[in-house]
Amino acid sequence: MDFYEAIWFGEGIGDGADLEEALHAYIAVKPDDGNWIEACAAKDANPHVQRFASFDAYLDNADALESIDVSAEMIASALEQHVL
User: Fold this and answer.
1) How many other β-carbons are positioned within 10 Å of the β-carbon of residue 9?
2) CB count in 10 Å sphere of residue 31
3) Average pLDDT of each block of 10 consecutive residues along the chain (84 residues)?
4) Residue 15 pairs with which residues in a beta bridge?
5) What is the rounded distance in angstroms from the CA atom of residue 80 to the CA atom of residue 84?
6) Which helix or strand (DSSP H or E) is residue 3 part of?
7) Domain residues of the chain, as ranges?
8) Cα–Cα dist 81/1, whole Å
9) If we measure between CA atoms, which residue out of 83, 66, 74 comes closest to residue 23?
10) Is 34 helix (H, G, I), strand (E, B) or coil?
11) 0.85 cut: is pTM over it?
12) How far apart are alpha carbons 29 and 11 in whole angstroms?
């Protein structure tokens, strides 16, 4: 089963068992003005999610299977659907 880690400014900010759950981690860095387009365009923000083969692979510091670029729209959509 795959495992995902959300990355913001080169740092892991959260993770999840699927892409949608990992995208919810971006709530931790939500811009005060809610402008995800501007926040994602900030120098070195580079929002992305790394996909690992499993939670164990993630814990073992295995290389990610892929890096998924994350857009402002993806983040906003995931957070709109997320009930806090």
Assistant:
1) 12
2) 13
3) 97 96 95 96 97 97 97 94 64
4) 5
5) 10
6) strand 3-8
7) 3-81
8) 23
9) 74
10) coil
11) yes
12) 11
